Amino acid sequence: MEHVTFTPSGVCSRQIDFDIEDGKIYNVAYIGGCNGNLKAVGKLVEGKDAKEIADLLRGNLCQTRGTSCADQLAKAIDQYVAAH
Q1: What is the DSSP string of 1-13?
Q2: 31 bridge partner residues
Q3: What are the extents of the domains in the chain?
Q4: Which segments in the chain show pLDDT lower than 50?
Q5: What's the per-residue H, E or C state across 12-61?
Q6: pLDDT value for 64
Q7: Are 15 and 7 in contact (CB under 8 A)?
Q8: Which residues have a Cβ under 8 Å from the Cβ of 55 and sit 6 or more positions away?
Q9: Which residues pair with 2 in a beta bridge?
């Protein structure tokens, strides 16, 4: 299992942590942001295919920010996938 730490931009959360094993995402945790909603995101994606999760969450926007904490998770996954 590989641990990933990502620093999001343009959102309230300051950090996103997750683990990837065999293309599946686990243990998603956000530091900062809307605590209840972000815990729910972590529960919903637990054990799911990382690429599918990125495709699902990419482009989800929060107000006029042009991104969201979910969109930033997609960016983190995309960055991980591109590096591996």
Answers
A1: -EEEEE---SSS-
A2: 15
A3: 2-83
A4: none
A5: CCCEEEEEEECCEEEEEEEECCCHHHHHHHHHHHCCCEHHHHHHHHCCCC
A6: 87
A7: yes
A8: 74
A9: 20
Supply the DSSP symbol for 64: T
pTM for this structure? 0.94
Tokens matching residue 46: 């637990």
Spatial distance between the Cα atoms of 29 and 39, rounded to a whole number of angstroms? 7
Task: Tell the CATH topology of 2-83.
Answer: Sufe protein. Chain: A (3.90.1010)
Give the integer Cα–Cα distance in Å for 39 and 13: 12
Q: How long, in residues, is the chain?
A: 84
Instruction: State residue 16's pLDDT score.
Output: 98
